[in-house]
Structure formats: C-alpha cells, structure tokens
From TrEMBL:
The protein, known as: Altronate oxidoreductase
PANTHER family: ALTRONATE OXIDOREDUCTASE-RELATED, MANNITOL-1-PHOSPHATE 5-DEHYDROGENASE
GO cellular component, one term: cytosol
Organism (species): Flavilitoribacter nigricans (strain ATCC 23147 / DSM 23189 / NBRC 102662 / NCIMB 1420 / SS-2)
Mannitol dehydrogenase N-terminal domain sequence ranges: 18-260
Keywords: NAD, Oxidoreductase
Start and end residues of each Mannitol dehydrogenase C-terminal domain: 273-463
Enzyme class: oxidoreductase
GO MF annotations, alphabetized: mannitol-1-phosphate 5-dehydrogenase activity; tagaturonate reductase activity
Enzyme Commission code: 1.1.1.58
NCBIfam families documented for this protein: PRK03643.1
Origin: domain of life: Bacteria
C-alpha cells in the first residue's frame, strides 16, 4: 500500500493557519487535532494547525512525510452499544522545528490569523529556568520559547490589542493556564523586556485553565494491518484511543462563541471555574479506580474490565458512585448520573486493557486524595459512614499485606509505607481493631488522626476481620 499523503488522498487545504501547537504526540493528535478537524468539517471555524517541536531530539519526520495527515481510531461504549469511529484528520498543515527553523518559528508570529496556542509538554514542561537567555535561539524551556514568540508578535504588531492569543495548555497540572502565564511574565522580567509587553500579555491574551480526559493508547499494533487495509493507505501515525472525551475550559464567554464548539456534539464545556469539574473527576473516576483495585484483586480479578463485569464487584462500584460519592458533590444530579454512567462505560471498554496491579501504584496516597474526601464529606452531611468507601480502605489494608491466598502481591509504594504494613502484619497483637487503629492513626498520611472520626475505627476493623476470615467475595455480599 502507498504511504498516506495529501496528493494520494486527494486533499488540498486552503484554510488559514490559526492554531500553534507545541507537541505532536499521540494525545494531542487524538484529542485536540481530532476536535479541530471536527470544527473544520461541521462549523465555520476554518483553521489549520502548525505543530511546533518542543524539544531538540527528533523531528516529527513521519508527520512531514504524510503531509500532516493521520487517522484516529476510537473504540468505546456509547449508550450501551459498542462503537468504533475512524477519522482522517487533515487539519495539520506543517511542522516547525525551532532548533533548526528558528526564523520560521518567529515568522509564524507575524501571521494575523494565528489565534490559538495549544501545548502538551508533560507535567514538567511548564517551568521557569533562569539559565534560559533571550539570546538563545531557542531557549530550553517551552514557556521561554513561547515568551520569545509572543514578544516577536507584540513588537511586529506594535502592541495591537487585537493580535493577542487564546492559550489552551493541556498539561496535567492544576491551574495550567495560570502557571503558563506566570512563567511568561517571569521570563519577561528576567530578560528585561519592555514593561508594555507584560501589560499586553496580561490584558490582551487569555490563558485558559483546562482539564482534559481521554485514554489514548497510541499506535494499535495488533490491529494496524487490518485497519490500514480497510483505510487503503499505510499510515505510520495511526493512533487509537477511547471514544470518551472531555475538555473543560475555564474562559470568558466570548472564547466559547469564537471557537464554535457549541455547534458540535463534542464534549467541550466552557466554565467560570474548573474546581467542581476537577473534584468530580478525581472523586468519581479516580476514586472508583482506587476502590476497585484492592476489592477486585482480592476477589481474584486482574483487570478493570474483568472486575466491573463481575456482578458483585460491578454492583459495588455502581453503588459506591451513586450512593456514597454523588451525594457529597455539588453539581446537578443528572450531570453526575451521566458522568457515573460514562465511568462504567469506560471501565467496560474492551479496547482498553487496564491491569489492576498497574493502577495500584501508590494506592495509600491515592486513597487520601480520591476517597478520603468522600468519606469525610459523607460523614459530615449524612451523620454516618459510607460503608463502601470504608470497605475500600479495609481491602487496601489487607492488600498491603503483600500476600493473598498464598500468592505474592507486587506492591509499589513509598518504601516507608511498605515497611509500615510489613511490620503491621507481623505484630503478634494482630487483632483487627489494633490494625485498624494503627492504619487510621497514620496522621502524616491522612493529615489527621482518623480514629477521631466517629465509628470509623470499629467499622474498618469489622471489614478487615470479614475479609481475612470470610474472603473478599463474601464480604461484598454483606453490602448487597
């Protein structure tokens, strides 16, 4: 088969370049570029993407060879039905490598139509480095490169307020837009750039905090040959992911109107504050994962899908979400029900192979951030304890024994925490109440002595005893 490119696919694009994107990895291509492709096909957005290579190594040669074209293949469950969607994304117009094409990189800032800046440079990518100099072409850090570009745009257009940009970082850090703006202002000060530039950055550019969610698995090795036969081209950039997607953007209303997402069926929300959405994701999606790991593993399950398909574990997760997590969240009930259903659909996705043991990494700290807030909020609101959230901690405590039914459990956590559990289970006064008290008393883990929560010590002890004497499965039956 022939390699995919524009001539062979019969695709010519005259759309203006409106988006500068730092990074061309799997996630950005299967998330942001896939969305921009939708905007171009369905709305009047009409914009192409220029991909900037954020680091020196590599050159995105395959993107160049394919003229920016690639297919996105999405698999998932939607409204109970298995779906697959294949899309030829054609919005990437070119690639610029600033380490080799610095002048072309700056020249891009002179294009009037350039409006949106997207980035995914890893959690460590939004950082200030005082060793970066203005004379470096390019400097090392991504925000330093971006400061250079914005300053060139500022000077070229003589500070024109209409030539500011909308910045949409998707790096997985809290307040990613605010952090990026702060780094740029630091560089402006560090490099002694004229004060008018900092004013222009703050007043005429919009830095949006964003929250993204989609599992992108990358090149689908097992299915690639069949897919390419069906598509009719060799596509070295074929990227697979789940159908589910969510992009929550904290931005003024005019940004939402300008981007036309409301004219599509894409799951993109523009909000005044991301906090509620971040809490929902952490407590529902991540919380369900963290509860499922020890409960599922001690029940003999080894994957997320296997665990949720098991009737009693699946029922446990659904009840945990609907009866214990959702009542603690401040959001419309239908929105929460829809999110809970999406969580279950994602867990059941046959194209995603999540092993429970891989999710088990650092489970004690994950319980602290993902499930403990639900426990405390539920107790405060309802005046009682959420039994399934407590059961998750009991199962976690037994899981951290490191052995179950004569099988070693490959635990991964902070060495000090692993030592704590090893010594805990070796103590001679090993009754469930003593174990419960010691676990709950780890104030440095929980930021408080959880023995002070009314009834928690006794409930945790009872669940630990049940798991150890009756097994995980029969313990689950007690909650049905």
């Amino acid at each position: 088969m022939q390699l995919l490119n524009r001539e062979r696919a019969g695709l010519v694009s005259s759309r203006p370049e409106r988006v500068m994107q730092f990074g061309g990895g799997n996630f950005l291509r299967a998330f942001v570029d896939w969305m921009i492709d939708h905007l171009n096909k369905i709305t009047d957005f009409s914009g192409n993407v220029v991909i900037i290579k954020p680091t020196e190594r590599g050159d995105y040669q395959e993107l160049r060879d394919q003229d920016g074209l690639f297919h996105v293949v999405l698999n998932g469950i939607r409204q109970g039905e298995l779906v697959q969607e294949k899309t030829l994304v054609d919005c990437v117009s070119r690639v610029i490598h600033p380490y080799r094409e610095w002048d072309a990189y700056l020249k891009l800032a002179e294009q009037e139509a350039m409006r949106y800046i997207v980035s995914n440079t890893t959690e460590a990518g939004i950082a200030f480095n005082e060793t970066d100099k203005f004379a470096d072409h390019p400097p090392r850090e991504f925000p330093a490169k971006l400061t250079h570009w914005l300053y060139h745009r500022y000077t070229h257009f003589k500070g024109d307020p209409e030539r500011g940009c909308v910045l949409l970082p998707v790096e997985l850090i809290e307040q990613n837009g605010d952090e990026l703006r702060n780094c740029i202002l630091q560089y402006a000060d560090h490099w002694g750039l004229e004060p008018g530039f900092a004013t222009w950055v703050q007043e005429h550019n919009v830095f949006c905090n964003t929250l993204v969610d989609r599992i992108v698995s990358g090149y689908p090795d097992a299915e690639a040959d069949d897919l390419q036969q069906e598509l009719g081209f060799t596509d070295k950039l074929l990227v697979a992911g789940e159908y589910y997607h969510s992009w929550v953007i904290q931005a003024p209303e005019w940004v939402a109107r300008e981007m036309h997402f409301d004219e599509t069926d894409l799951e993109v929300k523009f909000v005044d504050d991301l906090t509620t959405y971040r809490i929902i994701k952490v407590r529902m999606l991540n919380g369900a994962h963290t509860a499922m790991v020890p409960v599922g593993y001690l029940s003999g399950m080894r994957s997320v899908r296997e665990a949720v398909e098991e009737p009693h574990i699946g029922n446990y997760i659904r009840q945990l979400l609907h009866q214990e997590v959702m009542p603690t969240l401040d959001a419309p009930s239908q929105e929460l029900r829809d999110f809970a259903q999406a969580v279950i659909d994602r867990f059941l996705n046959p194209s995603i192979h999540h092993q429970l043991i891989s999710i088990a990494l650092n489970s004690t700290s994950k319980y602290r951030t993902r499930l403990l807030p639900t426990l405390l909020a539920y107790q405060q609101k309802q005046g009682s304890l959420p039994p399934r959230v407590v059961l998750a901690l009991a199962a976690l405590t037994v899981f951290y024994k490191g052995e179950w039914l004569d099988e070693k459990i490959p635990l991964q956590d902070d060495p000090a925490r692993l030592r704590f559990f090893e010594e805990l289970w070796q103590k001679k006064d090993n009754d469930p109440e003593a174990i419960s008290r010691r676990v709950l008393g780890q104030s440095e883990w929980w930021d408080t002595d959880l023995n002070e929560v009314p009834g928690l010590t006794d409930m945790l002890a009872r669940f630990i005893e049940l798991i150890c004497t009756k097994g995980m499965y029969k313990t689950l039956l007690k909650l049905q």
